[in-house]
Amino acid sequence: MGIISSGFSGRRRTDDPRLPPGQYKTDGFPVLSAGPTPRVSHDEWAFTITTEKGTVHRWSWDEFLALPQDDVSTDIHCVTSWSKLGTSWRGVKLDTLFEGVDTDYEYTMAHSYGGYTTNVPLADLLDGKAWVAHTFDGSALAPEHGGPARLLVPHLYFWKSAKWVSGLEMLPKDAPGFWESNGYNMYGDPWREERYW
Asked: Which stretches does the entry tag as region Disordered (predicted)?
């Protein structure tokens, strides 16, 4: 059962070209989670990329923060119909993390502390399309929003931006994660309203 906070109110704005079909603008930042909020300390946190050969690329929190950082301004869209426009994030581009990763696979499964998973094609993580974000609106990312770090894939519905992300596993073919196994669309393009199966 999901946990929902305030922020699910707003007016539907069909005249705003930044809003995908069926979305409304909110100034809040609603919280929707599939379970309790994990509390992961910086000392415990690590991010990994595991290839098909079993090679594990791993970054501790300090190693992660030592990587080149990007400031990102983007709109985000939740499958529950809210959109938050012009959000500000800071994090590490997935292109940076994949430097030196040798893989022939085209799909990934994102894994999170707490057991959450979601599938994302590799092409949707590279070429400046995705980040592992640790800062929101100038402050450390709060645990309820996925802190200490979450995946940020803003061109897809926000359930693909896995909170509390711990790593990516390379896959030979697409496979459903948590919400995809429970009826959500395998891809999740908000402009095509790919909400559910």
From this structure: 1-33
